[in-house]
Design brief:
membrane; 253 residues; alpha/beta; transferase; transmembrane helix; 40% helix; acyltransferase; acyltransferase activity; single chain; globular
Length: 253
């Protein structure tokens, strides 16, 4: 049954991508940035709803009322593609830090390019770090929130990876709060397998963490502790006690 559900899901997934590419991409470059986000994120709304309907997933969301009114840096754990779609809708307009290769995907990547992401070259980590710090501050000054997955890559449920501090450094430099987000999406939408799994998908938004007068190290410790505590509560797969260090410092999606 899960295989059939997944096949139906991907049929709608790619059909929606094609339809949105034909109808939405041509006019999008001529729209103001915020209107462009609203138009292109219609695809995200559909995917989130389609996934719930077809794959037997029950959403359990909490804490959206905690989001600040102004721009912020959103830091979330990274398990699957699902959160890259949903978190675009959390506090728009949102600029996502992602790997440059995603922009080469037909239709999908073209749409991403129109949303002013921070696209990084993973083969040059030092340059990527400098780029995310510079462009992240610029995006916040423009009124966009910035979404970063501090683990740097997808991490399977039940595993941990040390967090990059680039996101909190951006927030501290810009004087904006950090909003931590925890979810168990990888248990429903596996990061490295196409078959989806029914069940409960939980996501919780934490209280904004102020950065004024604090070091990036202090903020990062608080962010990671909050996300890990929430993951221990909502995850079906037990959490490990310690995180494995990343091979390189890569603040990528």
């Amino acid at each position: 049954m899960n295989v059939i559900r997944s096949l139906v899901f991907y049929a709608g997934y790619f059909l929606a991508m094609l339809v949105c590419g034909v109808l939405f991409l041509p006019p999008a470059p001529f729209l103001p940035l915020r209107s462009r986000y609203r138009l292109l994120n219609l695809y995200n709304h559909f995917i989130i709803a389609w996934f719930r309907l077809v794959c037997g997933v029950r959403y359990d969301f909490h804490g959206h009322e905690r989001l600040p009114e102004g721009p912020c840096v959103i830091l979330a754990n990274h398990q699957s593609e699902w959160e890259t779609v949903y978190l675009q809708l959390l506090h728009p307009p949102v600029c996502t830090v992602l790997k440059r290769e995603l922009l080469n995907i037909p239709i999908f990547g073209w749409g991403l390019q129109l949303l002013h992401p921070i696209a990084l070259d993973r083969s040059r980590p030092a340059r990527a770090m400098k780029q995310v710090l510079t462009q992240g501050k610029s995006r916040l000054d423009e009124g966009l929130s910035v979404l970063i997955f501090p683990e740097g890559t997808r991490v399977a449920p039940g595993s941990r990876r040390r967090y990059s501090k680039s996101g909190v450094v951006i927030a501290c430099r810009a004087g904006v709060p950090v909003v931590p987000v925890a979810h168990n999406a990888g248990e429903r939408w596996p990061g490295r397998h196409w078959v989806k799994r029914p069940g409960r998908l939980s996501l919780e938004v934490g209280e904004p963490i102020e950065t004024a007068g604090r070091t990036s190290e202090e903020v990062l410790v608080e962010v990671e502790a909050w996300i890990e505590a929430r993951l221990a509560e909502i995850s079906e797969v037990p959490r490990p006690a310690t995180a494995a260090p990343p091979a390189t410092e890569q603040p990528l999606a």
